Backbone:
């Protein structure tokens, strides 16, 4: 691994990049906008780290700031409008580390001791928050653990998931519930959006999960097949057809897609248990993570 330590500098520190003549255009301590030649700048709200900073790096996209401090720790701060300056977490690190870099998505932290040449790598996982107010749910709404699944009805890996999820709910009655988010990958699955629209429209008539099961158990997701499912479920066909193409349905799908993208979902199925991403999608993988979260909740009471 080669350390280049190339960093995206936070906008709030842009004045440090200006030439001496440019800096003079903005009086010390001034928050007023400034300009020089072909650049303009505006000082953003100031916030404090409250630790001796040794080095820092910004995540691609400007969502987080990683600060290596003289207290043998890495502090990770939010740097979006809604989280700017908010401490997201602190990671203890080995003594002597004095350089920091990160992977583009911020999920791996690289630390260097420039005296000894030692390099440490840390894998970082971020908790995700989802809007579940109107999201289709299965199980006990008061269950202490929630599973959120982003899925695509034409995805072959998603197709194998429902039996596993049903078994997880059966094993953990009263402890776990399940929330469904649509993530149709239309560039590779041309029928996925039609299926997603159908399940939303069926949900408007109280038959979300019934349509969900029919779609996942079908080899075809064309319009004729989907209309047959609507009739099988005794839906109001005229209303169903209107809802499938309605702006409301479009907005629901768009909301799921945007929420997924905001939380780094770029493939299906993507599964989160109490906001933490699940890697092992086997029944054992689910149960291990659920048991761990339930244990943590018990100890935190």
Residues:
């Amino acid at each position: 691994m080669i350390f280049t330590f190339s960093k995206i500098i936070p906008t709030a520190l842009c004045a440090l990049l200006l030439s001496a003549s440019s800096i003079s255009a903005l009086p010390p301590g001034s928050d007023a906008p400034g300009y020089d030649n072909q650049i303009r700048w505006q000082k953003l709200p100031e916030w404090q780290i409250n630790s001796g900073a040794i080095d820092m790096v910004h995540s691609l996209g400007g969502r987080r700031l990683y600060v290596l401090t003289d207290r043998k720790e890495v502090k990770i701060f939010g740097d979006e409008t809604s989280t700017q300056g908010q401490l997201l977490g602190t990671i203890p690190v080995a003594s002597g580390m004095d350089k920091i870099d990160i992977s583009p998505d911020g999920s791996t932290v690289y630390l260097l001791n420039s005296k000894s040449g030692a390099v440490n790598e840390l894998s970082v996982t971020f908790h995700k928050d989802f809007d579940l107010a109107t999201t289709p749910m299965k199980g006990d709404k008061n269950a202490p653990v929630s599973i959120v699944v982003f899925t695509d009805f034409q995805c072959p890996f998603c197709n194998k998931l429902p039996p596993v999820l049903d078994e997880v709910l059966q094993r953990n009655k009263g402890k776990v519930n399940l929330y469904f988010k649509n993530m149709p990958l239309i560039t590779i699955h041309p029928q996925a959006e039609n299926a997603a629209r159908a399940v939303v429209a069926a949900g408007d008539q109280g038959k979300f999960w019934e349509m969900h099961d029919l779609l996942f158990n079908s080899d075809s997701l064309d319009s004729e097949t989907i209309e047959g499912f609507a009739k099988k479920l005794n839906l109001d066909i005229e209303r169903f057809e209107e809802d499938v193409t309605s702006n409301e349905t479009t907005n629901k799908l768009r909301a799921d897609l945007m929420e997924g993208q905001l939380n780094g979902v770029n493939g299906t199925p993507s599964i989160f248990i109490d906001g933490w991403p699940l890697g092992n999608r086997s029944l054992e993988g689910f149960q291990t993570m659920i048991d761990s979260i339930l244990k943590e909740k018990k100890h935190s009471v």
